[in-house]
Structure prediction request, 201 residues.
Amino acid sequence: MSLVNFTTREITCKIVYYGPGRSGKTSNLQYIYGRVPEARRGRMVSLATQTDRTLFFDFLPLDLGVISGFTTRFQLYTVPGQVYYNATRKLVLQGADGVVFVGDSQARRLDDNIESLQNLQANLLGQGVDVRTFPMVLQYNKQDLPADLILSHADLDEALNFRGLRSFPGDALRGAGVFETLKGISELVLKRLAQTGSGAA
Ligand SMILES: Nc1nc2c(ncn2[C@@H]2O[C@H](COP(=O)(O)OP(=O)(O)OP(=O)(O)O)[C@@H](O)[C@H]2O)c(=O)[nH]1
Ligand SMILES: [Mg+2]
Prediction:
């Protein structure tokens, strides 16, 4: 849950990048880390195996500057996508203000995307979150791969985007769609915060 401190005029929001294994969640954070000026970001922490699979989570704190008079910080996390790390996913998801679902555009990964979305829904419900109003955007990553391997944006929307959420094509290695996605979720989270004032302290 976002923390709003009226005394120090600070807001801190938590965004979680969720999705199946190897969809490109860590790559999103790495790209953001590489492009944001040093003064605007903290150290990126990655807890990964030797083969680069996320073992626990990645963490990247960002400073968005002053928005409506409040110093606004976003904390970006990734979950480990591999199916058997669900206990860790639940922990990382706890208290999230918004989720970026990073799907893998490859046709052969469609079932994995669906399974991960269902897992996300179950975990949010388990934490008492109203999934109908919870801030979320989708990113269809790896759109740079050859056309015969991937599904189009429209096909992926049809298969995965039941809520009619904003969705973005992505290439997290070269950066296409990465900041558009971050902006999309940031807008939703800040809008919701303005409506509910949730977590005000
Ligand atoms: N072609 C292509 N490869 C990508 C893209 N994004 C990530 N990859 C590659 O896909 C692999 C997995 O990327 P990660 O960012 O580690 O995936 P992840 O979602 O964090 O995976 P887990 O931590 O296991 O859940 C790596 O080899 C990346 O280089 C993309 O947009 N296009
Ligand atoms: Mg990862």
Observations:
- The helical segments are 25-35, 86-93, 110-126, 153-160, 178-196.
- The first helix runs from residue 25 to 35.
- The domain at 3-196 is CATH 3.40.50.300 (Rossmann fold).
- The chain has a mean pLDDT of 94.
